Amino acid sequence: MEGSVWHGKARSTSSLHNWTRLVLFRPTAQVLYRDEQLGNREFTQQAAFGSLPKLKDQFVVRFEKWEDGEVRRIVLETAKMLGADIWATSNSGKSKFIDVKCDKLVVKKIVEEVGKRCKDARYSARLLIGDLPQAIFETLGESQADFDPKEEENMQATMKNAEKDGRELFRTQKDIFFKQFRHLDTIYSWFDMLTETYPDLLTVEWIGQTYEGRDIRALRISGHKSDNESIRTVVITGGIHAREWISISTVCYIVSSLLADYDAGNKKVRHYLEELDFLFLPVMNPDGYAYTWSTEWLWRKNRQQTYHPRCFGIDIDHSFNFHFERGLDSPCSEDYSGQDAFESLESYAWDNYLNSTRHSHPIYAYIDLHSYAEEVLYPYAYSCTEMPRDEENLLELAYGLSQAIRLRSGVNYEVMSACEDRGADLLPEMGAGSALDYMYHNKAYSAFVLKLRDSGSRGFLLPSKFIVPVGREVYSAVKYFADFLTEPPA
Ligand SMILES: [Zn+2]
């Protein structure tokens, strides 16, 4: 298919746009949240719906099926040069594609550029999401339409009074908690409920504070007896990119499942908790996450002021100090890395925290959850020529993680190096300063990124009905991982 753009079918061609009606005629579709840190500030979901008209002429196009790798380079370079939002890139095995959120003009320019620099190139460019506001409405709008703000408030209140009801409450609330995506406050109230329910197992760790003054909080699960010896810690993080909601719910789901299995007397899980500590940081980017709820669903970075008065946000996942590259792009761009390593307060706080706990809780293994593409990625992200120090081991583990997921749910997560996923073999800055490389280089013996569902048809707009299925499949992978760490194969 020679540069043919419009053979894909738009998701919705109906003349009555539901999202338009929603924005124009449902000004009372408000969901109110209290944010304790910010003094009962009210967040309205209406504000987030209000950002939809801005996306009216935007859609997501998938470039794929190229025979000449030069096409990939031209698409990436041109998309970046035009400041388009690259949703996903992949370049391994069956999955070779680049998804770009853009308008028609950008697609036209990319196609022209490919035509100019790579005559007779064969590739396909198809519409993945043809009407972005409609897709947002259908997915998040749909799931949030069922969203009951009263229920969210009740849940927070119930969790605050958890002392009496203890584990019974945890069990009964579990299903309800994972029915919908949760606001940051609710997640933190849930943390408090869990620590009250499991004082012998759980502690809330304060990692630091964000630009807008929110706490960055992690949960440590520690079931071993001795306080003296240092114990290997497995770190699982999510939500470094604000719009990747499924990564946040999945970290919480793993916490919940470990505790439930521990309670049920599951021998394996009890063994994991004797041998390993688990440190969970579900929301690495609290400001960005709150912003996706209040204002802009598709926000990715944190909310820090940059040197440009009108540009906010540093991509935390480019902000770490291992092979950091100064952001030469506009600070308005989606993957702006900042002027210096650790300029983002979140990466800075995380580094401080890990340094201060490195003797008592040395990091042993790391999994960072993202969406979307269904992939297991291993280091490095910054370079495809620099081999990780124990590639064989990493690959065995990566395929094991993928297999554990496939056995649980049948979904096939492709294994590849993070640099291939990011396109760093072509544009090295795309893989610079990542959390994965930083953790692998400085702290963890093995480190992976899991890019969760789906494979593109919903992209970042995964509805809440996927929370439990994705949680289950990733919990299986985590159990496989813990098995490997506690009883490595001979
Ligand atoms: Zn991400």
From TrEMBL:
GO biological process, one term: proteolysis
Protein purpose: Inactive carboxypeptidase that may play a role in cell wall organization and biogenesis.
Lineage: Eukaryota, Fungi, Dikarya, Ascomycota, Saccharomycotina
GO annotation, cellular component aspect: extracellular region
Signal peptide limits: none
Organism encoding this protein: Dekkera bruxellensis
Name recorded for this polypeptide: Inactive metallocarboxypeptidase ECM14
Signal as UniProt keyword: yes
Domain Peptidase M14 positions: 180-485
Keyword Repeat found: no
Cofactor: Zn(2+)
Keywords: Disulfide bond, Metal-binding, Secreted, Signal, Zinc
Places the protein is found: Secreted
CDD domains named in the record: M14_CP_A-B_like
The family this protein is said to belong to: Belongs to the peptidase M14 family.
Superkingdom per UniProt: Eukaryota
GO molecular function: metallocarboxypeptidase activity; zinc ion binding
